[in-house]
Every structure is written in C-alpha cells, then in structure tokens.
Amino acid sequence: MSYYFAKTLAAGLDDSVERTTAALKQEGFGIITAIDIKDTLKKKLNIDFRGYRILGACNPSLAYEALQIEDKVGTMLPCNVIVQDIGGGRTEVAVIDPVASMRAIDNPRLKKAAEQVRSKLQRVINGL
Is 25:32 a contact under the CB 8 Å cutoff? Predict the structure, then answer.
C-alpha cells in the first residue's frame, strides 16, 4: 500500500507550487508552512539539490475535528505536500495519504475523519 498520491506536471517548480496551492485552496486547505529544501541544504550543508518544496497544508475545520477525536494527532499535522523538480521541465506533486498515516492510531472515528481528508487530497491531485 502506498502512503502518498502523486502526479507529474509539465510545468516548472514555481508554477506547480502556485497551481497546487490554488487546488488545495479550492478544497479548503491553506499553506501554513513552506520549506525550500534546495535552499536549506545549500545554506546548511553547502549541497546542491534539485528544486524541492515541502508545503504544510491545513484544512482548519478538519484539523479541529481530528484534534477533538485524538489530541495527539497534531504530531501528524499538517498534511505534507511535496513539489519537486524531476527534470525536463516537469515536476512531481505528491501528498500524504492521511488514511495510511492514521493507521498508526487505533481509533475508528479518526479513520473516518482521515477518509474525508483523503477524498479532498485525491481531488487536489486529480485536478492538477
């Protein structure tokens, strides 16, 4: 079983980040963190790395619902979305499958909430 959903786009990194952010917004998610791995690795380790961004996506109402069910679920929030340059003018967008990640928590109510998030994230990926 895979722990993520992914799609390849014929677009540059910045364009793909913008498109992904807009698609997430349509499903009620906002970006609360953005990590530029390429920049971080260059600054911290002097390593050249491909364009690679980690976006922390959060749907506030669904996050609140999950936190009401299981207060430690915050250790798994926000939903991480990666956008990475795969060469040839293409990028890959990948999102975590929340149902797969929530299997670590034995709580059927949380699984149901994770299925809602999964549906939204699948629509994001399919719509890109």
Answer: no
Question: Cα dist. 26→59, 104, 127 in Å?
Answer: 11, 29, 10
Structure token digits, residue 20 = 């992904």
CA distance 125 to 41: 27
Rounded Cα distance between 75 and 123, Å, is 24
Assess contact for 48 and 42: CB atoms under 8 A: yes
Q: Give pLDDT tens digits for 76-92.
A: 999 999 999 999 999 99
Q: For residue 103, name the pLDDT band (cuts at 50, 70, 90).
A: confident
- Angstrom distance (rounded) from CA 43 to CA 76: 27
